[in-house]
Amino acid sequence: MRDTTPRLNSGGKIGQVDATRVPRYAGASTFARLPRWDEVDAADVVILGVPFDTGVSYRPGARFGPGHIRESSRLLRGYNPAQNVQPFAVLQVVDGGDLAVNPFSIEEALAEIEAGASAVLETGAKLLTLGGDHTIALPLLRAMAAKHGPLAVVHFDAHLDTWDSYFGADYTHGTPFRRASEEGLLDKNACLHVGIRGPLYTADDLDQDGDLGFEIVHATEMDSLGVSGVIERMLRRLGDRPVYVSIDIDVLDPAFAPGTGTPEAGGFTSRELLAILRALSSVNLVGADIVEVAPAYDHAQITGVAAAHVAYELISAMAIAQAAS
Ligand SMILES: N=C(N)NCCCC(=O)O
Ligand SMILES: [Zn+2]
Ligand SMILES: [Zn+2]
């Protein structure tokens, strides 16, 4: 049957389902009610779900993150006044669905995620991944670095995720950035964590983290630097290199993101995080992920809505950069 769904098409792009004609809560739940990948000729940005949580050390459930973020994204509208951009009119953004990855073999899943990401990048599209636990950042960085070389990574998280192993396992959600550094996927002069807080294993964790190529903006520094000071630190570190953004939703305070597996008190507000992300419109943003959304611990889509807005700001930043190029 021919698809007659009324959509908001503009700038030559196939846009969102028109919420003035089809109620927001009706119909299939693609991200922001955007078209599926197979419904367009060519995409500029592909949103890919990776429902995988076999790498977690505490509460499971991030495998349900992609579906929850999509379901929580139905209210996103087409014009972003904070950035004066209509992201879906500048870029053809599509939902690429979920990668079917092996929940019983982490190594097999890593290979499947890398292959899925590479398939997107080969088309020339940018990739925005919805996780999934943070383990998935490693295969995503492998695919990204194969295309762009060593990356400047800005990693928003309460946790360092540069630990070495758990129960003898090298590939977990606490270890992706150590593996990435060891594998030469990172530009060690240009990576930083933002939002780090909470108890560590030992003081040495921080020294090792520095050796792996990361600078840290601690969550408590928000009080002294403010949003603009944090942005300045971030942009100085990233420079004009290709930038990959990895956002663990637990960078937000549990009040703003209860639906996650390893919550830590004392985090950013959603408003602070969204403001920092807007500054990424001035960098060479080549890809991003949003991970660790675990809906079983969420309430009223608080975490899902935060993640949907995070995705929206990342796409807006990509759109502004594209319009300026
Ligand atoms: N990546 C996330 N969310 N958490 C890592 C926590 C690792 C630990 O249990 O020490
Ligand atoms: Zn975390
Ligand atoms: Zn993490």
TrEMBL record:
Signal sequence residues: none
InterPro entries associated with the record: Agmatinase-rel, Ureohydrolase, Ureohydrolase_dom_sf, Ureohydrolase_Mn_BS
Pfam families found in the cross-reference section: Arginase
The keyword Metal-binding is annotated on this UniProt entry: yes
SUPFAM superfamilies named among the record's database cross-references: Arginase/deacetylase
UniProt keyword Zinc, yes or no: no
Keywords from the named record: Hydrolase, Metal-binding
Similarity section: Belongs to the arginase family. Agmatinase subfamily.
Protein name, entry field: Agmatinase
